[in-house]
Design brief:
This protein has 110 residues and is mainly beta. It has a single domain, classed as Beta Barrel (OB fold (Dihydrolipoamide Acetyltransferase, E2P)), CATH 2.40.50. The chain has no helices and eleven strands. The strands form two sheets. Strands 1, 2, 3, 6, 7, 8, 9, 10 and 11 form a nine-stranded mixed β-sheet that branches. A two-stranded antiparallel sheet has the order 4-5. β4 and β5 form a beta hairpin.
Length: 110
């Protein structure tokens, strides 16, 4: 899996829903973790500009030590956003998005 950095300099991101834990095992409810042992969460983000009128929202996965308290409708900045291609044996495939952190848009610090 090759990660491709996304240049977000000319983009704006608005939270389009609630953060949810990324589940590793549906039977136990175990939350997936990153290499550093942090829980992984997904967050729907509305991206502008975006030419894809059928899918204007992207799901971004990010790590967090605590459950993220991110307000729907707030403007954010995904730090270190990357895109990658995924495919599973059943033939399903698509693009995925990950970042290292989600910060308020007004927070310009890296």
């Amino acid at each position: 899996m090759r990660n491709i950095p996304v240049d977000t300099a000319s983009m704006a991101f608005m939270v389009a829903g609630e953060a949810e834990p990324k589940i590793a095992d549906k039977a136990t409810g175990e939350v997936k973790k990153d290499a550093e042992g942090r829980d992984l969460y997904t967050l729907p983000l509305l991206v502008t500009p975006n030419d894809d009128r059928r899918n204007p929202v992207i799901m971004v996965t990010f790590p967090s030590v605590d459950f993220p308290q991110i307000v729907m409708g707030s403007k954010v900045r995904p730090v270190g956003l990357v895109c990658f291609f995924w495919q599973i044996n059943s033939g399903n495939a698509g693009l995925g998005f990950r970042c290292e952190a989600v910060r308020p848009a007004s927070d310009k610090a890296a």
